[in-house]
Amino acid sequence: MKVLDADYVASASLIAQLPSDSSRREIAIVGRSNVGKSSLINALTNRRALARISRHPGRTRTLNLYALRCSHAGREIRFNLCDLPGYGFAHVPKRERAGWSALIRSMLVERPALCGVIALVDAVAGPSVLDNKMLELLSEGERSVIVVATKIDKLGKASRHAREREIEGILGLPRDAVIGCSAIAGIGLDALWSAVLTALEGPTGAP
Ligand code: GDP
User: Fold this and answer.
1) pLDDT tens readout for residues 128-152
2) What's the count of helices (H) and strands (E) in the chain, helices before strands?
């Protein structure tokens, strides 16, 4: 997969405020704060600071939309990447934490072009209670859920596969469902792209 263009489109605090183009398929990316989401977006798109450019300092709940134009096997593929705010920040008020599940639900309902969600889990820390809750919410939809274990470079080569299988076990996922990735060492990015391509060809939430 070659990323030809990766452009920041817009930021918003509510799904309804994001521009929407139902003819353009969408992939969302979710994970708790500090899981390595921004780093992974930059690594996937091969841009140094795409995810950071649009950050609004002091605003914890920001959705960012990026437009991607890629080329793969002689085909041009265009889709949007929807970056959801990190959850689980310890000092976020309870009201806002509750708002976060509402945000996921509204994303599943109000983004008809959404066909997949990349859900990030820290490879070393393992899935948190909130990660479990997030995956539960996502499983209510029809879309592909791609589970990534981030920062896999922090583990020795010999233990990476075992850790992926262990995370699958904790989350009750089938074997080989978890893709170990490292934004820093460039591990697993091809496997993740291939899962994204499959999701882009799968069903959306459109009626
Ligand atoms: P976000 O809050 O989820 O967007 O996370 P960031 O991308 O800002 O990363 C949080 C921290 O984890 C930063 O200190 C990164 O340098 C570090 N980090 C991110 N990805 C990786 C990775 O693949 N490997 C390692 N070792 N550290 C990473």
Assistant:
1) 999 999 999 999 878 899 999 999 9
2) 6, 7
